[in-house]
Specification:
89 residues; mainly beta
């Protein structure tokens, strides 16, 4: 598994939680990202802004294991893939 290409990180305060927005320039199937957040993660989701030309090829799934995220998708997302992570502050 290769590492996803991180291009930007944002951090926002949400009361006693923090919202991290990780923007990637490229993410492919089974790429990983080690956030360093460990067991502090309480929720996460992703959004790909990649336009797919084949119906059914859109979208990515994300799995978390102790703050390391693995991305699963049918195609490579380029330009506009974001991972949102809600974690204990």
């Amino acid at each position: 598994m290769a590492a996803a290409t991180l291009s930007r990180t944002e951090e926002h305060s949400c009361g006693d939680l923090k919202l991290y927005v990780f923007t990637f320039s490229s993410v492919a199937d089974t790429n990983t990202f080690a956030s360093g957040l460990g067991s502090k993660v309480v929720g996460y989701w992703a959004n790909s802004e990649t336009n797919e030309s084949t119906a059914g090829d859109e979208g990515f799934n994300v799995a978390n294991s102790s703050g390391t995220f693995t991305f699963y998708g049918k195609t490579t997302a380029t330009g506009g893939f974001k991972l949102f992570v809600l974690a204990q502050g």
